[in-house]
Amino acid sequence: MSGERAPRRRRRPEEAERAILAAARSFLEERPFREMTVERVMVRTGLSRPAFYAYFRDRYDLVTRLLEGIGGLLFAVDWRWLSGDASGGPEATSEVLIDAVRRGSETFEQYGPVLRAIADAADQDPRVEEVYRYGLIERFAGAVAARVSRDVAAGLSPAYLDPEETARALVFMTERYLLDVFGRPADSPSSERTEAVFDALEKVWVRTLYGSVD
Question: Where are the beta strands (DSSP E) in the chain?
Fold first, then answer.
């Protein structure tokens, strides 16, 4: 079983650190953050409990490090749309946005329980909040606002849109929605529901920013 104690052996520092991060991710894929303790993580690694503190200050520091490995993916998969312009016209631009929304959603599908644990930790610890909400979510909303602003100026998006508030509404709505769908440990939605979730988000983003594109 995944929660059984792993056999102990000597490891190089970088290997030990990776083992702790992998054990934390494995735990959070099965159990919520409120149940995660240093002892419950370390029992999966084959390392002593004191070894944890050679690499991490506490469990909040641990989930912050997990975020470093995931957060960059959200920007990477959306960068083609975030950095683009209106030169392709509404149909081509909508296709790029749909691809970005789908691939970003797939990141939540893959890492949902871990991202939900990080979001839960952000409600409890200001260090995690700083990295997750302000370092990732707010920064992502700012990048979306910049793209919306360019599209409004180019006449591709409706002139009545407030770029900053529209971006914040879309980003925060999407984050909460995806965490609700994919963030429950050991409770993955069906493939049919997953497709319905992706489709709903695509329609909300495209129709808000570019109108109905058939």
Answer: none
